[in-house]
Sequence to fold (653 residues):
Amino acid sequence: MSKAKKSKQKKTAKPIVVATLKGKIDITRSGMGYVIVDNNAIDIMVKPMDMGNALHGDTVRVKITRENGRTGKKEGKVVEVVERRQTEFIGHIQLSDKFAFFVPDTDKPMPDIFIPLQFLNGAKNKDRVSAKLVKWDKDDKKPVGEVTAVMSPEDENDAAMKELLAQAGFPLFFPQDVLEAAEALPVVLDEAEIAKRRDCRDIKTFTIDPVDAKDFDDALSIRKLPSGLYEIGVHIADVSYYVLPDTDLDAEAYKRATSVYLPDRVNPMLPEKISNELCSLRPNEDKFTFSAIFQINDEAQVKQYWLGRTVIHSDKRYAYEDVQTIIDTQEGENVEDILLLHSLAQKLRQARFKKGAINFSSQEVRFTLDENGKPIGITVKESKPSHQLIEEFMLLANKTVAENISKIQINKQPLPFPYRIHDQPDPEKLTPFVQYAKKYGHGFDASSPEKISASFNQLLEDAKGKPEQHVLEQLGIRTMAKAVYSTQNIGHYGLAFDFYCHFTSPIRRYPDVLVHRVLQTVLDNKPVVDKKMEEKCKHSSDRERAAMECERASNKYKQVEFMLDYVGDTFEGVVSGVSSFGFWVETLAHKCEGLVSIVGLSEFDDFRHIESDYSLVGKRSGRTFKMGDKVFIKVIAANLDKRQLDYEWVQVP
Fold:
């Protein structure tokens, strides 16, 4: 063979491999895209002509086309859309004789969607509709879609909530095959399956939930044992019995990963047939459950526990308000059982705080809505002993399941499991908080994680009822890491648990379904290693974060809608945040937050931002506005499109 031929063979033997990276694409209003890749310090820039058929928020594969060796900046081209973040949109129809287009309501650049006339579903020209993207191949210039619903002008509220859900990537409707799969599930419990389970139907059992709840996914049972111990059963809807792996139902539940709770609706993870019927632990019905059953003494010490599948019969459904009345008056149906559960829950709670759990108080804003979804009132709900009763037993079940699984090893490796983890506070955020707390006379020991949690609890106790309570709680929460799902267990700092997971809400959280499945394989002595568990954890954490942002945006929308009727009115409020361009005020009466712009303050003084003191200070007058201050404001504007309230500081109301 000649040298030339040998040389030629060498060259063709090595194909050129172009590496691609996977990440999420963030598209700016200008049309420029940036692909965010895990563990990549610098995002990859993608120009509009290199975007392919990617849309904002999609998970994509990008090929690097240019790289600056000095700065590390990279440019790339999208070569594949791995997963769509959003497939449903709100917008308007443009209709002609032969074709129709859907024009999405979005500030992110995206093409109009071609709608074949047979997929208009009754929509007319200029109608506001929801539409679904059904096809957009790589080489197609236009995506193809279909109209899923036509909205009437009076449905503005409905359209706004659906738009928030769609933008967050949550499907507005269940696919037909998923609904059919749910409808095909049997309503009558299978006798052969009952025979395999621990039968708890003759034990007194009840549910305690919000007054407007429809899906009851947890129940408590109680009885006294001959030994003198109490048997407390925490019974959780057995969703994993109905939703099997690798089915259409499972794929849809995983995609959503969580139910989303908006002021006027729930966007559920599972079809209503499952969430509100088959798996809802309704009174006077036999139901399949997954249970943690504890033997507990008078001091709330667990002496023994059992985990496994059960069948229960709920005797009564309570609202939190009913149980609170029984606790307060010590009268009512099942009073002895409820007072005992209350007493045990409070002892569990005290033991938790003694071990280092952090006692941030929680408030929930609830809207009273008229028949069109318009807010006509706002109430603030705080955590009461009736809520704590349920919370403590759910925490106990979650902790016990996680501890149980943590002991299992396969080939000397921990069994992959979706732990719920919470890291220690961020030192960078903690330092300014400690300095700020000292200004109010609150000492803080940050020398160890244990000392930090003890200091937090002491501070929160000392500040209770004082003007700085709200601001210190708000700032304290900001120092905290976010809880996430992970197979790498580091414990849950905020709860002071070494092992923790989510076991108690499988109707509304996908990780709980995963926990049930893993637990059952362990109970069967056939533990299964799921190599994709960390990926599932990350997806669930991402979807949880998207749901929280969506819920926050919907609450803000309702706040703005509520305050539209009060433009021009004056209210007392508390400064809830400070920046270089103004300060935020939350009204005391309604908990509605708006911005007092520094532009409006300029007529009084020239204010500068003191970051370390969370305040604005007037250069001439020395007048300060700092977090926690009470002030009077006038509502000057309420913008629904921007979900924004503008306030004006009022010196004398």
Notes: Residues 1-17 have pLDDT under 50 and may be disordered.
